[in-house]
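STRUCTURE REQUEST FORM
Protein name: Mini-chromosome maintenance complex-binding protein
Source organism: Polysphondylium violaceum
Requested output: structure tokens
Priority: standard
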Amino acid sequence: MSDINNISSLSNPYKVINEFYEKSRDNLTNGVIVQHFRELLADNDVYSSIPLIESITDCDLHQGKLVRLRCMIQDVFEPQLYNVEYKIKNNQTNEIRYELAKYKDYTNIRENEEFILDYFNSNHQQQQCMDRNVLYCIPIPCQNKWVSKRNDSTTNSNNQVNKKKRPIEDDQQEDDDINNNNNNNNSEIIDNNNNNKKIKQNEKELKKNNNNFGKEIDFEKLYNYPVPANKEDKRVPFIVKVYDDYEIPQPGSDIPISVLKVSELVEFVGIVPQFVPDDHSSNAEKERNMMNMLGLLSFDSDQQTFPESLVPLFHCITFKLLNPYENGNHEFPFNSTTSTTTTPATQTEQQQKLDSIKSIRQELVDYILNYINDPLFAEYFIFYIISKVYSYNSGICLGNFSLNIDINCKDKEKQKQFKDIPKIIERILENVVCRSYRFEANIDNLNDFNIIPTKNYDENRIVSGLLQLAKNTHLIIDETTISEGKLESQALKGLAAIRNVSMLQKIEYDFIYHPIEFQTDIQIIDVSVGKPLVDCFSKVKINPTATTNINGTTTIDMDQNQSLFTRLQKYVNILQNTVFQPSDSQVTDHIQNDFVSSRQKDPNLSQEIFHYWLTLSRLMSLSFGENKISIARWESMKALENSRTSLL
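Status: completed
Returned output:
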């Protein structure tokens, strides 16, 4: 593919799309547009140069250009019918022209033009209805600052690259080419100068609308986030339209559209519409009515109550699912299946890697001990951090390791100090994992906070709740602020839902007439004073002799010791994506014999305990960079368990 085509595809994808449309009008479902862009994105340099948009400002900077959108699907609306192409007639000359309706919502028609609606005329086989999926996508919830900063750095870098990529003469030449193409093919309505004027006019209107809507709209309710957004966060949700091309077999690894489910992390590549109909023109009302008839604006009425300046539209050309266990670095192309393939490491290289992981593990232990000087807690906390569900089997999730921290002790002054532990855990996680959130489980929050996602049939949308989070989100349940009071039915249902996530990693969305179950992997750590409200897979009691320091015994922050945090983040990322291997037969026999012996000594030991020991020994091995359980690690796990249970 030539560099000129690459530049056009990135800076003016509509031009390239229209060219393919003119060549393929006889077969509008051949997927050639998607295939072109997928081949383009297979080049890592090209893919990395595409700007990542998150805010209204980003949309303004990159209107009509190829951009990326990284988000979580919060809701999936009903499929939207649209006419693949529409027919426009010039009433003065009787000239007929056609436009592709994909990847756009509006088109400005001239005063002397009108839409021709002849769907049922068999002589016009070009006009056909298809559907597109409409998704409500929100910024990835609970994303920690170090991930956001890296995204901001990537976005700013791409903006600079795009500004410097071509000289002014090339830009002018492309503009001339676009204008010539528009005049020859009648595929665009207005020239670039008029278009820019209309954009500016619409920007003024949208700013005015923003001021008006800001007085009337509850933005938290409008944006529908599972947890309250930071006031400094400029990221906004998007309405994403995904077209029908993914139903067509594509070369390589095709992704069926059915994978686009709620709470999935996705990176879309597509276009933010360049302009909206000009409300100042006398033709505006007729145009809107006609577009509605064509099915191009067939949103529910509730979705039309706010301007695009609050929730922008995004037309997806292609997309990829994101691995929730990656540490936020998704800068790889669409054909990245070979990018993770490496040549077999030599024994020396393997040993060096193992030594490096052990060294970083000790750094993580030391970092935790800076805040909570309890070595036993540090060990189990590391297991919790690197845990993930690796299999769902017959209702059992394998790999789950929810953790309860009991801070109850007889020394009331010490217990008062221990109440800082949830905030300390929050601080540690903010620097090590990519997503975390602390929920204060007091009476008011439990009674009033939306915990379970619920379908609102009046508004035809899912009202988000605390548990509508992406996989690999660390959720801290802080019970230290709870006091006496009455828990309402909503609170009891919410606690039951949290328990299901904690133990079974499943969440039932409340669809009023019936629940819908979703598998998840939200790592829950519950801090309680005594018996917790939320059952967990494991429980650690803080040693009464331990000391805590909410600021750390040494001053450590992101700016002063960035290299340490980078190592810790990579450590977690590597271990969560390590493929664990079955143990050797000798180890398997040893484990089985040990469990039989343990049951003979204590008949009350259940299969659940055996499952717990296997999970714990697996996590212990993994934390040292080992991808299978050894006899030594099994025995170390048993010794660690004896220390834990002796404090309970």
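Reviewer notes: The chain is about 40% helix and 15% strand. The mean pLDDT is 81.
Form closed.
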